[in-house]
Design goal:
This is CPXCG motif-containing cysteine-rich protein. By secondary structure, the chain is mainly beta. The chain contains 1 helix and 3 strands; from the N terminus they run αβββ.
């Protein structure tokens, strides 16, 4: 996944090491922007479609 703000790659291994679940907010390890990712299952895009978004306070 890429951060929408800094466009740097955030790996699944990092998310697993930090124990971050879908719909849980976290800070980008590169730019400290508050982000959230969502996993939508069974969509038009395939079995799983992952969306990452900036959380607006």
């Amino acid at each position: 996944m890429k951060c929408p703000t800094c466009e740097k790659y955030i790996g699944w291994d990092w998310l697993e090491d930090e124990c971050i679940e879908p719909n849980e907010t976290f800070d980008c390890p590169h730019c400290d922007e508050t982000l959230r990712y969502e996993v939508d299952e069974g969509t038009y895009f395939g079995a799983q479609h992952v969306t990452i978004e900036v959380v607006d306070d």
